Task: structure prediction
Amino acid sequence: MSRNAVKHTTCSAEETLALAEQFAQKLKKGDVLRLEGDLGAGKTTFVKGLARGLGIQDESGIKSPTFVIMHIYQGRLPLYHFDLYRLEGALDMESIGLDEFLGDPNAISCVEWADKAPDIFPSGSYRIRMKSVSENEREIIIE
Ligand code: ADP
Ligand code: MG
Result:
């Protein structure tokens, strides 16, 4: 594990929400979060916690944007929420114009399934790796 990686273990979805809510406090305009982990690892749950931390009102509307690719929520800062699950290859990335939004200096961008496109991320992006350990336990490495 690299030097600036911090490992957390949460024991419920609520704990993951709280971790992300707290993490959101240190985010600044232009920050990019790469979320990695299998289906059910808790990526969308983490994004909900970010939304909470950014003062976004209707958290119930936050779902993986699997079909529309991107959602925008308005809080203390705008939060862009992407999901690359259904995308195939680099061509798709360019054709959907992801690069126009990613790293927008006035917003925070978070990307589920970021490992599908490791090359598109600006250096200095946060990388958040999530893994199911048991039904309610998740390992979350933030670097
Ligand atoms: P992903 O976006 O990675 O596919 P989701 O956040 O949509 O994952 O789903 C995670 C599921 O796992 C939710 O049903 C959530 O309630 C459940 N869960 C159980 N324990 C945890 C935990 N510790 N952290 C996050 N989610 C958890
Ligand atoms: Mg998801």
